[in-house]
Amino acid sequence: MIILRNIGLRRGSKLLLQGASVTIQPGQRLALIGANGSGKSSLFSLLMGELEADTGDIEGMAGLRLAHMAQEVHASGMAAGEYVWRGDSGLARLRDKLQQLEDAGQFDAVAPIHSQLEEIDGYSAERRSERLLQGLGFGEDAASRPVSDFSGGWRIRLNLARALMTPSDVLLLDEPTNHLDLDATLWLQQWLQQYPGTLLMISHDRDFIDATCGRILQIEQQQLQAYKGNYSDFEQQRAERLANQQASYEKQQRRIAEIDDFVRRFRYKATKARQAQSRLKELERMQSLAPAHIDSPFDFSFPAPANSSDPLLRLDDASLGYAGNAILTGVELHLRPGSRYGLLGKNGAGKSTLLKSLVGDLPLLAGERAEGEHCHIGYFDQQQLEALDLTASAALHLQRLSPEAREQDILNFLGGFNFRGDAATSVIAPFSGGEKARLALAMVVWQRPNLLVLDEPTNHLDLDMRHALEVALQAYEGALILVSHDRHLLRNTVDELLLVHDGRVESYAEDLEGYERWILSSYRQADRSEPVSADNSRKEKRQSAAAKREKLRPLQKNIAKTEAEMNAVEIEQAQVQTRLSDTNLYLEEQKQELATLLKREGELKARAAQLEEAWLEQQETLEELARP
Fold first, then answer.
1. Is the peptide bond before 430 cis (omega within 30 degrees of 0)?
2. What does the alpha-carbon distance between residue 221 and residue 214 come to, in Å, rounded to a whole number?
3. Residue 332's closest CA among 349, 345, 315?
């Protein structure tokens, strides 16, 4: 068992844990929850030996095989499949040793290596890594593509696959569903249900926790509080505990008031002095109880739209896709005020393509897109986080959207998203992913849209913020179209489901639970048939991968060309900035050169923005075309 005893931990000036203790039994499956910044990732670092506790100790980690999900992957030319199976360090060591012996011609020494590889099922490593990649939503050719081909979110998926490939007694997963779609989330859920070791997982996905974990470990007020059962059980137990805690706190406060009153009245009366001293000692011995804090730091809502149209937006007989490659055809979709749709579909089926076409970011290949006169779209996807200005404050982001807005109104609004004081007025460069996501959502809400298009809005958000978003969406009066792997959010905010599959967008007659059963059944069927079909289809997969690489090559060349121009612009920008930092340039006789440099600075900034936008579009197109 793993025992954390009286752990104290600070990061900088912030106290994260104080006298925290918990015992984790072998094979337990725990979800670690707590507000952003409460110390969840730091606790993982303690368990991995990357941090040392300021006080207390940890027992039971010695000799345990530990696997964890790294949060970064550096670009490399290594094939993704190899990157994944090298998560099994013992396997990688044997494979490397075998290669060295064969290269040296020492064939008489390879027999023991082959025997060891046979014992650990080493010859199926490629097949197992491919299955992990496909389960997590990668295309069939992904295993042969270099890691550097994949964008940030897909590299996080590679790290997850690598962690699952690693033989382990203890598996630590930090927000494993953050960059997954619903289908991949369901596949991971099924995989974790079969994992035989101890699972400790940071997650803010209620349904995922319910399906995979039997205990909840909460960080609250610098303590570790364990609860039996899943998240739904935790909510009930915590409510009962907080009610008891509040009752005990109020009872104690009444007793303290009684003692204070007695001491104040009788401390200096000879006949009562001894009793007064006795009560003071009682006060000193009394354990300090904290009041039960259950208030969320988030309190926001969507303002009622100023006006509307019916329909707000429609697609008629639309073909959607990239560069002549239609991903969806015959799309008929009319979004009316109050309509609330959730999009379902496998990764790469075209959900993001549909959303980008709806908001006008992606031109139709055929058909018609028409906005109502008063259609006002609020669009959120993960690229909104990348578009934030790190040198500006949260308040300035809103001020730029509404130059006429009063500063106090902006600050009051941001307070509902828990941006208060310096958090609202200081630059956002130090913001975490969760804080950036909150700001991007705040910017959408601020603009009072009557049509919300949300693509995975809960990534990086903690449970309190997810709940606040759910409540706000339930009261929202406009139209909503939502893509999310958070089933709880989908279940509680949309009225109709649309299925994106086989190049079509169709109404889905069943409920979300029916979709889960369908997807999980398809995974189980694939697992049963995979060993038989793997060898038969390997040649076809190689041929398909080669054809796809040929198809992608022109686009990859364009991306390389764009990146080269971006680099050249960056170099010239640096040269211009160096020249502008010369104080002599601001003398009267240098006025003409200064004007020329300032003009060039503006041109370079505009060109850099154009190139960045083009590069992002090219990357999106590459990812769409690379999917099966």
1. no
2. 23
3. 315
pLDDT band at 536 (very low <50, low <70, confident <90, very high): very low
Q: Which of 151, 153, 127 lies closest to 140, judged by CA?
A: 127
Verify that 457 and 551 share a domain, yes or no.
Answer: no
Distance CA 520, CA 60 (A): 36
Per-residue pLDDT at 543 = 52
pLDDT band for position 334 (cuts 50, 70, 90):
very high
Question: Stretch 3-30: mean pLDDT, rounded?
Answer: 92
What value does the CA radius of gyration of the chain take, rounded to a whole number of Å?
29
Give first-to-last CA distance, the chain, whole Å: 44
pTM: 0.73
Tell me if 359 is assigned to some domain.
Answer: yes
The tokens describing 207, both together, are 């349904």
Q: What is the DSSP string of 553-620?
A: HHHHHHHHHHHHHHHHHHHHHHHHHHHHT-GGGGSGGGHHHHHHHHHHHHHHHHHHHHHHHHHHHHHH
Structure tokens at 533: 């079909």
Q: Are 79 and 143 in contact (CB under 8 A)?
A: yes
Task: Name the helix (H) or strand (E) containing 278.
Answer: helix 273-285
Q: What are the residues facing 333 on neighbouring strands?
A: 315
**For 58, left (φ over 0), alpha (ψ -120 to 50), or beta?**
beta
At 532 the pLDDT is 42
For residue 16, the enclosing domain spans 1-65+168-229
Domain count, the chain: 5
Residues 462-477 pLDDT 10s: 888 898 899 899 989 8
Residue type, 458: T
Element (H, E) at 527: helix 512-580
> Do 172 and 156 sit in the same domain of this protein?
no
d(CA 330, CA 366): 9
Average pLDDT over residues 488-499: 92
